[in-house]
């Protein structure tokens, strides 16, 4: 089977999960970039990513890569590509160009150069000229010019893969479907669903988390309700596609029969609940997802509910509500959870993780993501009495929210930096040999910093060990802030690629 290189993009914060997804599909990852993963697979594999990836935004078939520093080199590169293999005369195309270099001073001009080269090629082959269109082209061409390198490729999906086809109505600040799926993975929903657990979302908006969770629990392919650009391409691209779709239909049927999970969403806005209901119907889940209007202050667990996962993204504080109102909302939510949901797992996405202090719960793990351009944190909790805190305690006394990276004691921080450099020197060979494996670079080596630091690829995990009672909470927070400032800097890791967890020893 002929294989090709494809570039699979995903939003920031989802790449590690995307790599796991590719491994689960049995697809080889050949390289990593900040915006996505390079993979090598055949057409069936690439179609499978379009149909089954819950996290990917685009899958681009790689056609060309070479240096380019002028309009002429871009035109010649485009002229050398056998477009006739893809374009029938009646087909439309579009060029999406990113980047500038040399005399390509704007992406628009770059796109024009690619178009000129393509037209010259088609004419030289005696073919009829295809028409360029900005909307829903048959052949979406992707071009990128970065650091003098031109890449040309074909976008297999067309519309971004987060557009599943079921959410034609949204409330305010809806979650991107791919991010909702990433949150569900990080919160451990696949395991909860496998064990027959339930899912609840107490600020469900248009129902994105509920539908994505139901799709996972019922083995429904996220691309089952939409079309893809490649379906209209000629040649071997679609060979075997009907069977692939039929298999996805079959898996959904089986998944619907096997899944025992129930889904419940509530939101105070009746119009939003009605929109969620219609989205749920479009996704074919109206018999298992229940949504209703309910203010969180009135929120109760239904009597027959089993345990499972509550995953939600309330108003963010800086986006939908004033910060004070949001803090009050979190206090109410925390009170409801502590009285109604003992035994459940709980995941909360917010842009100001400090607001999580108001819940009166200790979070066990945190991850950072982008929701559009907004940086957000997913806080994960186990709702157990041992994790309860008094919400009225001062902020410093509550261990929720990652502190801002900061150096409070230069001398102490320098000790940590030196130790990290030394440990990394010792491990350098092992890291170079297996860059994608996890390597522990520090494990409470210095008594002042009771953390473990693990590097996996370009990702860093800081695991904080619960400090003994003799260490004041404020001092522990300051030391953690120092770890978060020093470790990414010394290890050359993007500070945004640091995740945090908290464990008791
Ligand atoms: C950020 S949106 C949730 C978006 C949702 N995840 C989606 O994808 O559409 C927050 C939701 O919280 C709801 N909300 C605000 N205050 C509430 C309250 N006191 N009780 C219940 N829902 C509330 C809003 O109506 C809004 O739909």
Automatic annotation (TrEMBL):
Q: Which CDD domains match?
A: AdoMet_MTases (cd02440), THUMP_AdoMetMT (cd11715)
Which key words tag this protein in UniProt? Methyltransferase, RNA-binding, rRNA processing, Transferase
What Gene Ontology cellular component terms go with this record?
cytoplasm
The record's listing under Pfam families reads: RlmL_1st, THUMP, UPF0020
Show the InterPro entries listed in the entry: 23SrRNA_methyltr_KL, DNA_methylase_N6_adenine_CS, RlmKL-like_Mtase, RlmL_1st, SAM-dependent_MTases_sf, THUMP_dom
Q: Where is the THUMP domain?
A: 45-156
Q: Which GO terms describe its molecular function?
A: RNA binding; rRNA (guanine-N2-)-methyltransferase activity; rRNA (guanine-N7-)-methyltransferase activity
What is the scientific name of the source organism?
A: Halovibrio salipaludis
Q: In its UniProt entry, what is this protein called?
A: THUMP domain-containing protein
Q: Which PROSITE patterns did the record assign?
A: N6_MTASE, THUMP
């Amino acid at each position: 089977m002929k294989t090709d290189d494809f570039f699979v993009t995903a939003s920031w914060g989802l790449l590690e999960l995307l790599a796991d997804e590719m491994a689960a599909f049995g697809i080889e990852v050949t390289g990593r970039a900040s915006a996505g993963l390079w993979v090598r697979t055949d057409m069936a594999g690439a179609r499978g990513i379009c149909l089954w990836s819950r996290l990917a935004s685009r899958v681009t078939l790689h056609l060309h890569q070479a240096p380019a520093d002028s309009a002429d080199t871009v035109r010649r590169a485009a002229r050398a590509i056998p477009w006739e293999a893809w374009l029938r005369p009646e087909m439309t195309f579009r060029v999406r160009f990113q980047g500038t270099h040399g005399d390509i001073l704007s992406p628009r001009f770059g796109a024009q150069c690619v178009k000129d080269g393509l037209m010259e090629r088609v004419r030289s082959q005696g073919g009829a000229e295809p028409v360029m269109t900005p909307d829903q082209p048959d052949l979406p061409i992707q071009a990128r010019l970065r650091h003098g390198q031109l890449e040309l490729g074909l976008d297999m999906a067309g519309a971004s893969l987060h557009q599943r086809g079921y959410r034609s109505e949204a409330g305010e600040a809806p979650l991107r479907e791919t991010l909702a799926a990433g949150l569900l993975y990080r919160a451990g929903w696949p395991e909860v669903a496998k064990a027959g657990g339930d899912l609840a979302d107490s600020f469900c908006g248009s129902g994105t988390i509920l539908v994505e969770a139901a799709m996972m629990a019922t083995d429904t392919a996220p691309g089952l309700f939409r079309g893809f650009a490649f379906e209209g391409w000629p040649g071997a691209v679609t060979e075997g596609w009907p069977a692939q779709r039929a298999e996805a239909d079959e898996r959904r049927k089986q998944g619907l029969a096997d899944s025992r999970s129930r889904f419940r969403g509530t939101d105070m806005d009746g119009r939003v609940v009605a929109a969620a209901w219609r989205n749920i119907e479009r996704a074919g889940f109206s018999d298992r997802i229940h949504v209703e209007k309910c203010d969180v202050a009135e929120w109760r667990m239904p009597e027959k509910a089993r345990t499972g996962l509550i995953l939600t993204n309330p108003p963010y504080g800086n986006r939908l509500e004033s910060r004070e109102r949001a803090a009050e909302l979190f206090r109410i939510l925390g009170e409801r959870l502590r009285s109604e949901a003992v035994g459940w797992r709980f995941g909360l996405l917010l842009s100001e993780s400090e607001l999580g202090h108001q819940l009166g719960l200790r979070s066990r793990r945190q991850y950072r993501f982008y929701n559009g351009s907004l940086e957000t944190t997913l806080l994960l909790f186990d709702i157990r009495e041992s994790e309860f805190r008094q919400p009225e305690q001062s902020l410093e006394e509550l261990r929720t929210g990652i502190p801002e990276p900061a150096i409070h004691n230069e001398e102490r921080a320098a000790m940590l930096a030196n130790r990290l450099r030394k440990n990394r020197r010792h491990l350098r060979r092992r890291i170079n040999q297996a860059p994608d494996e996890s390597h522990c670079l520090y494990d409470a080596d210095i008594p002042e910093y009771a953390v473990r630091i693990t590097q996996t690829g370009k990702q860093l995990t800081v695991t904080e060990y619960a400090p003994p009672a003799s260490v004041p909470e404020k001092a522990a927070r300051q030391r953690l802030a120092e770890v978060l400032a020093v470790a990414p800097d010394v290890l050359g890791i993007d500070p945004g690629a640091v995740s945090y967890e908290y464990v008791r020893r």
